[in-house]
Amino acid sequence: MPLANAVQGHDETRNSAYELHWGLRLRPFENVPDPKFYVPSAKHEAAMERMLYGIHARKGIVMLTGEIGSGKTLLSRAVILKLPRSRYEVGLVSNPTILGNEFLSEILFQLGLDPHGTRVEQLRRLNDQLLANYHRNIDTVVVVDEAQAIEHDRLFEELRLLSNFQLNDRFLITLVLVGQPELRERITRIPQLAQRVAIQHHIDYLDRAETKAYILARLTAAGSELGIFSPLAISSIYHRTGGVCRLINSLCDLCLYFGHVSGARQIRRALVEKVGNELLYRPENHGVGVLS
Fold this sequence. Notes:
Blueprint: H1 3-9, H2 17-22, H3 42-56, E1 61-66, H4 72-81, E2 88-93, H5 100-110, H6 119-135, E3 139-144, H7 153-162, E4 173-179, H8 182-188, H9 191-194, E5 197-203, H10 208-221, H11 231-241, H12 245-262, H13 269-279, E6 280-281, E7 289-290
Parallel strand pairs: 1-4, 1-5, 2-3, 3-4
Antiparallel strand pairs: 6-7
C-alpha cells in the first residue's frame, strides 16, 4: 500500500502499564511520525507554512532541511494530512537509497501506478497520470523523505527531470525534498537542480520555552490532565537534550517508564538526571545521543 495512504488512514491506540499509571490514553513520546503528536512550535509552523505554500502554488520543487532529530519526518506527515485527497494525489518515498533503476518505479508505485516496464513506458505512464490529474483539477505531489541518503547524483538528476513535466503556465508535479543539512550541500553542487528549488526552509532545534511547550503538548495529546513533569524536570530535559525532538522523546519516555516502575506520582529533576546519566551519553563535539 502506498505510504501516503497509510499516513492518511492511521488512527491506532495502544495501552500499557505505564500509560495507565500516568492516566494516559497513548504513549506520548514514541519516536514515530504520528501526526497526532505534531506540536506547532514557531519553528515547525514556519516550516509547514512554507511547504504548504510551495505545494499550493505549484512551485515545482520545495526543500525542507533540519538537524538530526528535529522533527522533519513528523512535519512532512502533518503536511500530507493538510492536503485533502479530493485535491491532491500524494506519493511518499521514505527510502530513497533504492537503486537508480528502481527509483522511478518506487515513485510510480507510491502514486498508485504500475511500476513495471521500460523507462520510456514508465515516463509515459506518469505523464498520462499527471495530465489526467490536471484535467480532474487534482495536483500531484511526491514527498521524498531522508533525501540526503540518495546515493548517486544521477538520482537527483532524475528528480530534476521530473520537474520537466509541466504545461506552459504550471508544473504538473510538485517535489518535496526532506532531509538533513547535507541535502542542501549536495543540491548546491548541482546548479541545474538548485536553480529549480523554489522554496527552501531549515528547522533548528527547539529552545528552552519551545521544549517545555513541546513536552506539555504531547502529554495533552496523549490525554494527560496532570502536571506529570515538574518545571525543574523539564528544565533538566532541555539541558540534557539540547532541544532535539528525538532525544526529548527518548528521555521523556524512559522517565515515564522508570517513574512508573518506582511508583512515582510526578517526574522530578532527580529522576531525569538519573535516567540521563545512565542511559544518555554526550560524545565530545557530537551532541547528545541515546545508548542502544
